[in-house]
Design a protein that fits this description.
By secondary structure, the protein is mainly alpha-helical. It has a domain at about 30-100. The protein contains 6 helices and no strands. Helix 5 runs antiparallel to helix 6. The protein starts with a helix and ends with a helix.
Length: about 100
């Protein structure tokens, strides 16, 4: 029973944290806040994408240890040259797959 009360409490806190600003806000967001919030998706994606690249591979073979970094560089190059998200993902995945097959 205690675990269900804990889960319910977490749900209520999460709901309140998300809803109170929306309920108390009058009108639109200030321009500076809207600009500032525009950086949140980029920051979150960077944190999620760079962690596997930055973490060492432990006992992996030498080439495999650098596979995420090399695939990330290939994906970054494709993104820079084309600006196409699908091509970037495909190139990064293909590079990672090729490096894994070679090692």
């Amino acid at each position: 029973m205690m675990i269900w009360l804990t889960i319910l409490g977490m749900a209520v806190v999460t709901l309140l944290v998300r809803e109170i600003p929306l309920l108390t806000m009058r009108g639109e967001l200030p321009i500076w806040l809207g600009r500032w919030l525009g950086y949140v998706p980029v920051a979150v994606f960077t944190a999620l994408a760079l962690r596997p690249i930055a973490v060492s591979a432990g006992d992996a073979p030498h080439l495999m240890a650098g596979a995420p970094l090399l695939a990330g560089l290939v994906g970054g190059l494709v993104a820079w040259r084309t600006g196409n998200t699908l091509a970037t993902i495909a190139a990064g995945m293909a590079a990672y797959w090729a490096i894994r097959m070679l090692s």
